[in-house]
Amino acid sequence: MTTRADSPGSGQVRLISTSFLALFAIVGLVLYGLPLYYDFFVKELGWTRAEVTSGNMIGKVLVGPLFGFLAGTLIDRVGPRKPMMAGIVIASLALVGLGSVHTIALFYVFYAMNALGYVLAGPLPNQVLLSRNFKESRGRAMGIAYVGIGIGFFFVPQITKYLIGAFGWRTALMVLGALVVVVAMPLVLVLREGEGPAAAAARADAPKAPLGEHLKGKNFYILALGSMASIGAVGGAIQHFKMMLTLDKGWSQAEAFNIISMIAMVSLIGRFGAGWLADKIGPKRVMLIVYALVTVAMLILVSGAEGSSIYLYVLCFGLGLGGEYLIIPLMAAQLYGTAVLGRIMGIILTADGVAEALFPWIVGKLHDSTGSYSAGFQLLAALAALGAVAVAMLPGKRPADASVATT
Question: Using a CB cutoff of 8 Å and minimum separation of 24, what contacts does 42-51 make?
Answer without folding.
Answer: 42/243, 42/247, 45/102, 47/104, 48/364, 48/368, 49/240, 49/243, 49/364, 49/367, 49/368, 50/361, 50/364, 50/365, 50/368, 51/104, 51/364
